[in-house]
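User: I'm putting together a teaching handout on how multi-component assemblies are represented. Below are the sequence lines for each component of a complex, exactly as they appear in our records. Could you produce the 3D structure of the whole assembly as structure tokens, so the students can see both representations side by side? Please keep the chain order the same as the input.
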Amino acid sequence: MVAGTGVISAIGNSLPETLHAFQQKKSGIGAITQLETLHKNVLPVGEVKLSTEQLAKITKQPTITRTALLGIHAAREAIASAGISSLKKWRTGLISATTVGGMDRTEDFFQPFLQNPSQGRLRDVVHHACGSTTELIAEAIGVNGFLSTINTACSSSVNSIMLASRLIRQGLLDVVVAGGTDALTKFTLNGFNSLMILDKEPCRPFDATRNGLNLGEGAGFLVLVSETVAAREKIEAICHVSGFANTNDAYHQTASSPEGRGSFAAMQQSLEVSGLSTDDIDYINLHGTGTVNNDQSEGTAINRLFSDKKPKLSSTKSFTGHTLGACGGIEAVFSVMAIRHGCVFPNLRFQQPMPELGIVPQVEFESGLKIRNVMSNSFGFGGNCSSIIFSQIQR
Amino acid sequence: MITHYCIIRDQNIVLDGKVIFSEKNSDLDAFLLNAYASLKVDYPKFYKMDNLSKLGFLAAEMLLKDRSLLNDYAPEQVALVLSNAHSSTDTDRRYTLSSRTAPSPALFVYTLPNIVAGEICIRHKIKGENAFFVAPAFDPALMADYTDMVMAGDTGASIGGWVDVLGGHYDVFLYLHEKNKAGLAEHTTGQLKELYNTTLWNS
Amino acid sequence: MEQLMGNLKRQIIEALNLKHLKPEDIGDDQPLFVEGLGLDSIDALELIVLLQQHYSIKIENPQEGPKIFRSVKTIAEYITAHKPA
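Assistant: Of course. Below is the structure of the complete assembly, with chains in the same order as your input.
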């Protein structure tokens, strides 16, 4: 069961700020202000509107890596909102996904080091490894049981929530903090730029004229608990993870197959696990990066699976940018928010459907809805496709 | 049970305890190219892979040498559970160097550890569940427990193990686990630990 | 033109890691993508980098790739037409 959620992204540093941004249709995508890069005035991004120093101050941490600080901020909010009296009482785990780890600080190290190999502060690189990010978060939130780090590209944090659900289902853990975190770095900005899939304008997912993605940053975590914990801690969870699946598209290292066979299989199998039919899904939080390839592939799979009875759907990456390893965690938090508040989020800047698919996403913030089941998609390089379903708990 | 396992270590490729390919006195790049040539498979994409993918690819080729898993399983029934210590740092480094002049897209696409999983899936047409764990050292308990969870449902076979490389240092232990087949060893923490630690070719 | 195409073939083999090929294996008019040499979208991006590094030609829109990179000959023609003075 989902006991708590926490999020930080370009559209807000907390759950209330995030919901407010959705209600106001206020995108977080804009010019680069934090990162020192040549692309500063060229490529828009979804930055968290706090400097690393400010983040350190708020989280009462030394200025460790930005990735870890974002993770600590969101994980703490998730734990606070879960209302568990003491994590120490339970077998608790932390599963955190990241693709860049402490790369942001390593880049600080590199500039002086490349000028002169005796320069550069070594303390900037000690947290470079992805696993180190998880350890820093664990220390800050006081989890010392099971720790695990997942990096399967952009589907990473859905996979960490999947693993968490399984560990609880199998009775191996009682409480798991699961999600992911990624900071913007020059490494990813240059890399995606070299792939020529970064839009110089704010992205337009699922639009006929879409022309690439915007990178973003942030963190999103859930606190998952067993039924025993929920009962003993008197937690009134509103939803649970009812289905999940991970498949491989087996097509290309980075491109999705045109027919979206991996994404189709992931969505279909997650429905099977949940025991739900396509009619039961009330909202799909799309992977929807805004690249020509992803949206065409994902849309084709959705058309095939849902045919003419498609639920409301939208890509919240039009607000946050693509937060890579964190997006599955952030969008899981949004999915829970949709169930809790009976709302769906707009897909910004959509004007005309892809001609070959005709899919029209949700364009307005809408509330007062009965949202029982939400499907969230995350697909990554390496053909890694994940789909997860959150279902309202009937009382 | 574990039906095959492959170790690539110290310039040896070892399948089920027997040395299949060995070449001393060559660096890793040359070792990988020569090992590929000795396989006599026609898969030019191999040349484009980073060293992590090349290592995983070669080990998987060994496990599936004489058979196609698809004769026994649907593509969705074969899972892949991999792990290593250094993620994609080996390629991250090369890519970072390239980006001082012009960032190389072909290098950038390998700056994720799970690309090796994608390459193996593409090669063998596997479409089941994938996971990639980053851990300080090979963790037989994690591997055994997680694979069992993945295989609790319809999944009939999995390729699991460890594929690690950083600079000239590399260590590969990949195995094929099939739920309903007799094999070399049970898929347990203890057996995985033992197989991983084998140094049979020295004896 | 002949010389340019010869250079291009060597540069393509080098940049795209086509270790199984020699320059003479690539025909001037042979399609480079899919049915021909079997290059893919990432190779196309590497070719864009190649043109920029060796010939100072910048291709801004990757959608133009398939037209320019149809064969060694079309690339050579594009270079000849767009080479900065």
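A couple of points students might notice: Chain C touches chain B through 13 residues (CB under 8 Å). Chain C has a mean pLDDT of 90.
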